[in-house]
Amino acid sequence: MVPRLFLLLITCLVITALLAGCGGSSPSQVPETPAATTPATTLPPTTEAPQITAVPEPFPGALSLGAQYRYGREDIAMDVTVYQVKVMDEYTWWSPQWGKYWNTTPKKGNQFLFALVRLVDRGTARARLPSPSMFVLHGDNGSYVQTTDRDNSLWIKGFDVKQYDFYFDNTGGWIDPGDSNKVDGFLLFEVPASLRPDHAYLEATFSSKAAAVWKLG
């Protein structure tokens, strides 16, 4: 009897142990690793390339240096040519009175611009010369008229001709037909040192119906 009870007790203990093992806590779950996310890339705003606006020519159709302009009628046919430009920080002129050269300098920040002009009457009658004031120089910083601070009959070193004003005064403002009577002289302007000939224009107004502009560079 005892052995049977002992065997029953052992059986109960084994069953109890098995039931305890089966009823234990369920295995812990491994936490899921969140999927890696790629951070959003913020692109800089798209900027349009700056548009370059061409600066319009102040005098469309201006004549080039050395080009000839004609005005008048059959008996008076005037050919005008602006053929050379010189820029100088100062110029030297000869004084017969003192028998020596003198230097002329511009105001601080300025320079001298010389425009050489030739006029020939190709007609058959005398013609009026344009006065010096009819020639106006235009640049980036404004417009300029002729200047002189000496006797216009004096020679300037480096030039084979005299100031245009000299010929205008000596002829009384008239020109006779033919190459032998041509007027060839320079126009003198004091301008800012920043002015460049390729940005400068010489305008000449000969009458209410005749005018021309030369680009100097």
Question: Can you describe this structure?
Answer:
The protein has 217 residues and is mostly beta strands. It has a domain at 68-215: Sandwich (Immunoglobulin-like), CATH 2.60.40. Helices cover 13% and strands 33% of the residues. It is built from two helices and twelve strands, in the order αββββββββαββββ. A four-stranded antiparallel beta sheet has the order 1-2-5-10. Strands 8-7-11-12 form a four-stranded antiparallel beta sheet, with no helix packed on it. It has a two-stranded antiparallel sheet with strand order 3-4. Mean pLDDT is 84; it is low at 5-9 and 12-31.
Q: What is the approximate shape?
A: flat
Q: Tell me the Rg in angstroms.
A: 49 Å
Q: How much of the polypeptide forms β-strand, as a percent range? A: 25-35%
Broad structural category? mainly beta
Poorly predicted ranges: 5-9, 12-31
Mean pLDDT: 84
Which architecture of the domain at 68-215 per CATH?
A: Sandwich
* Topology as a string of helices (H) and strands (E): HEEEEEEEEHEEEE
Strand order of the largest sheet: 1-2-5-10
Q: What's the CATH class of the domain at 68-215, please?
A: Mainly Beta
Number of helices: 2
- How much helical structure, as a percent, in the residues? 10-25%
